[in-house]
Structure formats: structure tokens, C-alpha cells
Amino acid sequence: MKADMHIHTTFSDDGRIDPYEALELAVERGLGCIAIADHNSFEAYDLIKDDGRVIVIPAIEVSSSEGHILAYGIDRDVPCRLSARETIDEIHDAGGYAFAAHPYRWWSGLGEKVTLSNPFDGIEAGNARSYRRDNRSALALSKRMGCPVSAGSDAHTKDQLGKTYVILPDGLKTQKEVLNAIISSPREVVTANRSVTSTLRYGVKAIGLWAARGFKRM
Ligand SMILES: [Zn+2]
Ligand SMILES: [Zn+2]
């Protein structure tokens, strides 16, 4: 089963995928599971969670003061701008798993030192919007830490959805089974990588957004 564990919808500031469209694309592209990981919003998840064709995991991408953290399987929102350690504690209190999102990405990634020195449940070892080099480093770090891996497209537009995924056993039926499968043993990750061209575009856009927000990290 293919699981794209990092998708943004129109409920993220910069997301352009309607939640129902995300669902249809997931079916079309043969995904058995998706995690909607909007920035501090469960609205898309609430709209599509009961579809039945695709398992939808409740998730959010939290902007900690040290970088982005993915929270899977949580039952409530987690505040932004806490330290990595405080964010992980909040995620655990909410019954979820904390994964270091794209840890090697400039600006929004946690970096190796912060990732290594905090009790993460796992690492996002494939992200279609990361450089190939950064995805390789993330996978190597997960091996070094001996921790579970996740992967996702980080799709903000329709074309990206499903480009990166983690491979899980077939036949999983519930959110809980999916999360257990990810947490219980190392999984294979299939990842696309960001091209140099799109990275340059992304860099310009990210700086533009950052400036518009009064120089606060997103
Ligand atoms: Zn991120
Ligand atoms: Zn993201």
C-alpha cells in the first residue's frame, strides 16, 4: 500500500488542492492512504475522513521555533513556536507521533543537531519538495538513529500529490493499523526530488511570504 504522508490543501495558506480533489487524486493515483498535514488545521481532514476508499490520517505540520514537525494521529491542535522538545511533548500528550519534517531543508527544517537531540518518533526520509541530497541525508540519519521513517509529497498543487510515499503492507484498514505499521519497523520510501529550477522558484516565494509576515518563520 502506498501512503503519501504529507499533503497540504486549501486550508494551508499556500495550498491549492481542494480536500475532495485530494481524495479523488489519491484514488486515481493508487494511494491507499494519505495524511492531510495542513498547518494547524484539521478542517480538510474533517471533510474527507469518512470517505472509505482511502485511509485518511489526521495530521498537522507544526512550525516549532526550531523548524517544521509533522504530528500524525493527533486528536487536537498543537501550538506553534514552541521549542522542538515542547512541541514533541504536546504531540505526545495529544496521542500522536512526532516526525522531523524534511530535516535538512534550509530555513524550515530542524537540522541534524536538533533532530538528533530530541525524542522524535521518526523522520520524514522522503519529501518531493526537498533536494535529492537532503532526502538522502534524511534517510541516512534515520538509519543512524534506528528510527521509523515516513515520506510524503508535501504537495501544495495537484500535480505533486502522490509523487512520494512510504510503502506499507497491503490490507491495512484503519488509521491505527497504518500508524502502527509505520512505527513498528523500517519501511521503504519512494521519493521524487525537487529540481534545481523549482527550488530556485521556491526560494524566492518563501522569502516573499516570509517578508509579508513581518519576518516570522512560517
Ligand atoms: Zn514543512
Ligand atoms: Zn509541508
Structure notes:
The chain has helices spanning 19-28, 43-48, 84-93, 112-116, 132-145, 175-184, 196-212, and strands spanning 2-7, 31-36, 55-64, 67-72, 97-100, 122-127, 149-152, 165-167, 188-190. The protein is α/β, with parallel strands linked by helices and 218 residues long. The chain has one domain: TIM Barrel (Alpha-Beta Barrel). The longest helix has 17 residues, at 196-212. It is globular, with a radius of gyration of 16 Å. Bound molecules: zinc ion (ZN) (2 copies).
Supply the CATH superfamily name: Metal-dependent hydrolases
Q: Specify the number of helices.
A: 7
Total number of strands: 9
Helix content: 25-40%
Beta-strand portion reads: 15-25%
Describe the structure using short key phrases:
single chain, disordered C terminus, 218 residues, 9-stranded mixed sheet, binds zinc ion, TIM Barrel, 7 helices, alpha/beta
